[in-house]
Amino acid sequence: MSLLEVNHIDVHYGDFLALKDVSIHVEPGTIVSLIGANGAGKSTIMNTICGLNKPTKGDIIFDGQNIAGKKPNQIARLGLSMAPEGSHCFERMTVQDNLLMGAYLAKKDERMQRLENVYKLFPILKEKANQMSTFLSGGQRQMLAIGRGIMTQPKILLCDEISLGLAPVVINDIYEKLKEIADTGLTMLIVEQDVNRSLKSSDYAYVVLEGKIVMQGKSKELSVDEVNDAYFGIN
Ligand code: ATP
């Protein structure tokens, strides 16, 4: 059974139909990637899964429950966590407090254990634990956003455009970490604009174009050229 099933959803912004009959399945323990150009609808898909947008058609089944139309905090409590695009964090809080916010419902010992796990994964965050997060570099903020997502100990982690505005070497670093996280068995749905990177770092991929899924398949079996054509809408 899929951990997450998006079934034939439409999403509107006013009269504008931003997603058209979108279906996505995420199997437990896999990394699934959404590929698409600017404005294709990737963030709309992520935000709809998290409860920030409501679908006007279709349903979203997460861990056996229909979550379409539920509030973001209700969905988060069911075990779905999102590291948002642009790696938003609480800038006037320290790195450590930002992380602890991700686990505010957990008991103290448990919270500290999760914190140690995140620090093991991202030692730089431990070094900067007591600094205000506003002083972090772009890559470190992205790590913080992922770390905060992990602190909730989710069943699935959604990462919207991890690479946005980062240097290639930093992006590679972060993808290495994602691999480590995936090896712990955590299921992930990620958004990535770079076709090569997307196919290399996922098990299954969907190409989004103008609000529709135009191609999908096992990442190993998809051809970069065909995905590139689908990405740009070239038939
Ligand atoms: P990007 O990579 O630039 O974030 P994306 O693939 O995530 O692009 P979305 O942000 O989901 O694309 O946008 C999909 C479409 O919906 C675009 O045409 C965009 O202009 C439109 N859109 C997104 N958010 C809103 C909104 N709040 N109100 C109206 N239209 C919106």
Automatic annotation (TrEMBL):
Annotated source species: Eubacterium ramulus ATCC 29099
Alphabetized SUPFAM superfamilies for the sequence: P-loop containing nucleoside triphosphate hydrolases
Source taxon at top rank: Bacteria
One Pfam match: ABC_tran
Domain ABC transporter residue range list: 4-235
Family: Belongs to the ABC transporter superfamily.
SMART domains per record: AAA (SM00382)
Keyword terms of this UniProt record: Amino-acid transport, ATP-binding, Nucleotide-binding, Transport
GO molecular function terms noted in the UniProt entry: ATP binding; ATP hydrolysis activity; branched-chain amino acid transmembrane transporter activity
An individual GO BP term: L-amino acid transport
Descriptive protein name: Putative high-affinity branched-chain amino acid ABC transporter, ATP-binding protein LivF
